[in-house]
Amino acid sequence: MLTQGLRSQPGTSVVADAGALAHFDSSALAVLLECRREAMARGKSFGVARLPPRLRELAALYGVAELLPAAS
Fold first, then answer.
1. Helix count (H) and strand count (E) of the chain?
2. Model confidence over 12-27: pLDDT tens digits?
3. Where do the structural domains in the chain lie, given as residue ranges?
4. C-alpha span between 10 and 18 (Å, rounded)
5. Which residues lie below 8 Å from residue 21, measured CB to CB, with a gap of 6+?
6. How far apart are CA 62 and CA 45, in angstroms?
7. E-assigned strand segments in the chain
8. 8-state DSSP, 11
9. What fold, for 2-67?
């Protein structure tokens, strides 16, 4: 479903809205990183909107925060 959604996304960038994430663990990071990988494989940029501060802290703990830039 992720790949299908990315294919249907028009334009040159993909933005994941993480604002609804209230209860999460490292699997949320895995999904966002897979979304980034798929977007970049299609030549698109990737950003995350409304990433919860606790999830940003978890990303920093795992050393992947720079891979999940804030959407502009």
1. 3, 2
2. 999 999 999 999 999 9
3. 2-67
4. 19
5. 28, 52, 55
6. 22
7. 13-17, 45-49
8. S
9. Transcription Regulator spoIIAA (3.30.750)
Distance between CA atoms of residues 38 and 59, nearest Å: 19
pLDDT at residue 41 in the model: 93
**Amino acid at position 50, single letter:** R
Query: CA distances (Å), 54 to each of 24, 34, 35, 50, 72, in order?
Result: 9, 20, 20, 11, 20
Any idea which residue has 């994430």 for tokens? 21
The dihedral region occupied by 43, where left means phi > 0, alpha psi between -120 and 50, and beta the remainder, is left
- Joined together, the tokens standing for residue 54 give 């606790």
**pLDDT on residue 72:** 72
- pLDDT above 90 for 48: yes
